[in-house]
Amino acid sequence: MRLSLAFGLFLAATPALTTPALADVEAVLDTHILPGTAAFAEAAQALETSAAADCRPEHVQPAWNAAMDAWMGIGHLRLGPQEQAALTIAFWPDSRNSGRRTLARVIESEDPLGTDAEDFAQVSAAARGLYALETMLYDPQFSGYAADSYECRLVQVMTEDLAEQAGDLDGAWRRKFAPELRHAGEPDNALFLSEAEAERALFTQLHGGVEFNADQRLGQVLGTPGRPVPARAETWRSGRSLRNLTLSMEALHRMARALAEGPVPAVDEAFDAVAYFAEGIEDPAFQDVTDPAAHVRLESLQGQIRMVGDALSLAIGEAMGIAPGFNALDGD
What CATH number does residue 89 fall under? Predict the structure, then answer.
């Protein structure tokens, strides 16, 4: 039923696939990227303040969730200052559990690096940022610490480190990279030699974010045929795997509208189909993926997300002069 409905929606939108779309770099910056980096910096600062007041998990968790929500609004951006910053803010996937193992070693030895935010920047990227904090706040083997413990101070340091990274990221966008995008093609712009280069860079981020949701946020947990991997679901300990996916798709939809200077029916229909299928997911942490029916629902959702990528390529990418078959993750 869901598959046939979504397919019908997509076909109904097909005549609009050739509707011209003009790329609006200014709108993407002013309504999507810069408000998003500011919101994330604000949320990360609130998280630091919360942990400083009371480091215990039950007190810090609401602020951590708010920071994660804010990151989902911009996490698909992997260009400019965010290309490297994302590694230490959001180290995921981590299929080898390197973050968890590193945190265990730091705690076992009571490493001095874990007591100072400036020194903590030397720690492995896997043990920094939002996902490492989830381990500290939700993993039963880590989250039972007392207010006067080494782990308490470690959590405070981790939130200080994250807040500093978020502030630096917002500042770097505003001071350097947003102006470069905004003034693409001007004589002194060595990064973007034409407006078309800036437009293509943003489209690449948009399309790549959709692919990441299909290939990683769902692909990791779906695993290989006959071998799903529940423990690879994103932030499954905090029960927000589906929330991450939903917020990310909503942010990508907003970015698509900004880039295309308004609604594009075929794209809107494809995003709406994803939202419809997401409502049918019963376990928000995707831990029921070993059940055949639940597995099919997740695979169907993945298929709908791939259709968003197709719609973007046809309805926006081609109008921007980007060839069919474009893949944001392989450099085509």
Answer: 1.20.1420.20
Residue 331 placed within a domain: no
> How many other C-beta atoms are found inside a 10 Å radius of the C-beta of residue 102?
19
- Buried-exposed string 310-325: b where 16+ CB fall within 10 A, e elsewhere: bbbbbbbbbbbebeee
pTM, whole model, 2 decimals? 0.91
Our count of domains for the chain comes to: 1
| 10-31 residue pLDDT tens | 434 443 333 334 579 999 999 9
In a domain, 241, yes or no: yes
Rounded Cα gap, residues 231 and 287, in angstroms = 8
HSE at residue 153, side-chain half, CA atoms within 13 A, is 14
Largest CA distance in the chain: 64
Quick one: pLDDT band at residue 5, thresholds 50, 70, 90? very low
> How many Cβ atoms from other residues are within 10 Å of residue 286's Cβ?
28
Q: What is the pLDDT of residue 325?
A: 55
For the chain, the 3-state helix, strand and coil shares in percent, each to the nearest 5, are 70, 0, 30
> 76 is written with which tokens?
């698909």
Q: What is the DSSP letter of 224?
A: B
Tell me how crowded residue 133 is: count the other CB atoms within 10 A of its CB: 28
